[in-house]
Amino acid sequence: MAAARRVGSLRLTCPTRLAMCGHLRPSDAQLALIAPFKPILSCADFHTARVNPSAATESSIFDWEDAQVPLPKTRVKKSRKYRLANEKTVTHKSVFLRTSVKKLGNLARQIAGQNLNQAITQMEFSHKRVANDIAIILKQARSAGITQNDLTTTEMFIDQAWVGRGSFLKNKWPVGRGQANLRRSPTTKINVILKGDDTLRRRAKEAEEKRLRRKLWVPLPSRPIHMRTDFSC
Question: What are the alphabetically sorted keywords of the record (predicted)?
Fold first, then answer.
């Protein structure tokens, strides 16, 4: 029965033995299979590994010098999800303001998509009562973007702005004959998301790639109309 011995990562299965020292010797067929991949162990090295396996060094069949060829550098394309996760983003939430969703929503739609400094200027010169509060909230968001995400004041813009309804404040409204009605005052908050120039560059690049992928529009060929009647164009 053939004997087997594992030395390192090389496995030798030998049907014959040397008469003089008793070492295992690979057959000619095994030499033909092993030779292109790994140099054959010498008799002394094999004897040392057989007597003291811990003294044998671990090796691999891929250790020869010809295999040490540097692989070509390939550029890994980052996914859109990865790029979105690594963009600088600031999310700022305001306190509840004493105004309605309808009034605050108009101002939120006005500043959405604009440069941050331009939006602050518009809110400071607006005649709406709650516009001054929105200007203060935008300044707080600008400070958070500078300190937390290293964004500059010139590159920040308002990517999204939306409002949320809060609870109603209840107070008494006195009427005639010593009676009072219950008056409800709404509260609303505004949330803004600030981003930088890297988002604008990514969107411009995606828009250009989408335009290039679009199928070329070809107009209909100008051909003569046969069998035309008086009612045809």
Answer: Ribonucleoprotein, Ribosomal protein
